[in-house]
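USER:
Class, as today's exercise, take the chain set out below, and explain how the chain folds.
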Amino acid sequence: MRIYTVHEPPARRPESRRGPDNFLFVRDGFYFWAFLFGPLWLIYRRLWLVLLGYVVLMVAVGFALHFLGIAGSNASFVHFLLSVLVGLEAGTLWRWTLRRRGWRERAVIAAPNMEAAERRFFDAWQSEADATPLPPVHGAPFAYPVPAPARAAASPDVVGLFPEPGTPR
């Protein structure tokens, strides 16, 4: 199973309605194209701040390797490891950029592929949109009943290393 996060774009205008075409699904896992063509993948996804950090990091690593006298296959191996790191963290960097741009994470979906993830999300999204609101409580407008949180039975027993609140030590 793969894990996908679903992101909703920020509302530009109050009258704008969110539609199914506006949601973005970001897969968690290794991005092969980000590993192989890191800067091009970052440009394609418009991850400008991440691209700037990538360039700064690669230049700093290059200077550090030159200053330490490491060259040839060892330097290539270090750059290979940095490319692997970009491939592994590409989804996280993409999600981080979306959050900075005001996108809101709506759901986390586990599905075998993107199509199944979309189907699961939009089925739940449609049922949420079809749900009818509860009637007002005590005549107050827009007041909905909130269930009281469930409380566990108070016990003087110790759970793990922490006693129940309010019991003497």
Notes: The first strand starts at residue 2 and ends at 8. The CA atoms of residues 65 and 75 lie 7 Å apart.
